[in-house]
Amino acid sequence: MTDRPTACLALADGTIFLGRGFGATGEAVAELCFNTAMTGYQEIMTDPSYAGQVVTFTFPHVGNVGVTPEDDEAAEPVAAGIVVKWDPTEPSNWRATRDLDGWLASRGRIGIGGVDTRRLTRAIRQQGAPHVALAHDPHGDFDIEALVAKARAFEGLVGMDLARDVTTAQSYRWSETKWAWPDGYGSQDTHKYKVVALDYGAKRNILRSLAHVGCDVTVLPATATADDIRALGPDGVFLSNGPGDPAATGEYAVPVIREMVEDGLPVFGICLGHQMLAMALGAQTIKMNHGHHGANHPVKRSRDGKVEITSMNHGFTVDSQTLPDGVEETHISLFDGSNCGIRLSGKPVFSVQYHPEASPGPHDSAYLFDDFAAAMDERKRDAP
Ligand SMILES: NC(=O)CC[C@H](N)C(=O)O
């Protein structure tokens, strides 16, 4: 092997990173974000919320435990590409069914290794999430100017509705609970509550977590109408995570969510679902400089001051200045004070910006699934 670079990452400002390609050959144009998680690269690459984004990992050892279908958060990797410091090694883990390189190659996702990811991360923090073109060519034939031009031409995630691309085409039932929950959480009583989960790009571990607390989950496409949901007679409605700009997805989803709130149903949202619930209640979202992507973000719970260490992946945020009267801010980020949770006062309607289902990340916030179950119990008790 020669030292000739076989992969190129071109930023829209003309900065070029050369490295060794792995995974698929070809090109990808996307927004670039950094993720600080030390584990969970497979869950991150298959999290549908990463559609339209290339992920650079600040942790240098990526790929060394291979991949296993058990860790897929969706059927396919969804992130557009991956940037790492050290080239992925052969997997060293009994759970691995294949290596990262071959897995990415078979699924059309491009990787670049040998990049100074600390320099790249500093650039992202300073200038905001850049638009990039990532190319992998085994002969190292790159037209660098053309790559920079493609990165510049990328329109960015603002105004982009990507939930329609990643949502399920058909509705389906979800019943798998298999997941190691911390002791004491979850009813283990299956099919206790009928829940409709609106799929804007749902991670599987969210559906597992709902099933774990006793939900019989029917997953509906992002474009489901209020009547589609009512026809199933749910005890509660769940709003999933997902990619793209909440304001764009919200054009069709927000009015439906508002109707569910008006129907008096318990509603629980995560990440994109949180942002769209906030919009349905009258708030607005804004694009962040470089977002929050990691597995150790501290969040303060307003009701008792408790700090949760959370998993995060978002590039937009709810502007807490726009929260109307009657909508409480329940959680805030201890990194930058941004909004991390809301509740409609006196109603079983709440959501969080972070990921209580982890995958990857800590389990501090798993209680939120129990809170949703408790809200559905209460409604059943109060029903005439
Ligand atoms: N994980 C998510 O649901 C992400 C939500 C939204 N696409 C954002 O980037 O903020």
UniProtKB/TrEMBL annotation:
SUPFAM superfamilies: Carbamoyl phosphate synthetase, small subunit N-terminal domain (SSF52021), Class I glutamine amidotransferase-like (SSF52317)
SMART domains: CPSase_sm_chain
Ranges for domain Carbamoyl-phosphate synthase small subunit N-terminal: 5-135
Active site (UniProt): 271 (nucleophile), 355, 357
Metabolic or biological pathway, per its Swiss-Prot or TrEMBL entry: Pyrimidine metabolism; UMP biosynthesis via de novo pathway; (S)-dihydroorotate from bicarbonate: step 1/3; Amino-acid biosynthesis; L-arginine biosynthesis; carbamoyl phosphate from bicarbonate: step 1/1
Annotated region (CPSase), positions in chain: 1-193
Source superkingdom: Bacteria
Keywords, alphabetical: Amino-acid biosynthesis, Arginine biosynthesis, ATP-binding, Glutamine amidotransferase, Ligase, Nucleotide-binding, Pyrimidine biosynthesis
GO molecular function annotation: ATP binding; carbamoyl-phosphate synthase (glutamine-hydrolyzing) activity; glutaminase activity
GO terms, biological process: 'de novo' pyrimidine nucleobase biosynthetic process; 'de novo' UMP biosynthetic process; glutamine metabolic process; L-arginine biosynthetic process
Catalytic reaction equation(s): L-glutamine + H2O = L-glutamate + NH4(+); hydrogencarbonate + L-glutamine + 2 ATP + H2O = carbamoyl phosphate + L-glutamate + 2 ADP + phosphate + 2 H(+)
Its EC number(s): 6.3.5.5
Residues annotated as binding L-glutamine: 49, 242, 244, 272, 275, 313, 315-316
Group of enzyme by EC: ligase
Coiled-coil segments: none
Quaternary structure, from the entry: Composed of two chains; the small (or glutamine) chain promotes the hydrolysis of glutamine to ammonia, which is used by the large (or ammonia) chain to synthesize carbamoyl phosphate. Tetramer of heterodimers (alpha,beta)4.
Matching HAMAP family: CPSase_S_chain
Family, as annotated: Belongs to the CarA family.
Its biological purpose: Small subunit of the glutamine-dependent carbamoyl phosphate synthetase (CPSase). CPSase catalyzes the formation of carbamoyl phosphate from the ammonia moiety of glutamine, carbonate, and phosphate donated by ATP, constituting the first step of 2 biosynthetic pathways, one leading to arginine and/or urea and the other to pyrimidine nucleotides. The small subunit (glutamine amidotransferase) binds and cleaves glutamine to supply the large subunit with the substrate ammonia.
Protein's recorded name: Carbamoyl phosphate synthase small chain
Organism (species): Jannaschia aquimarina
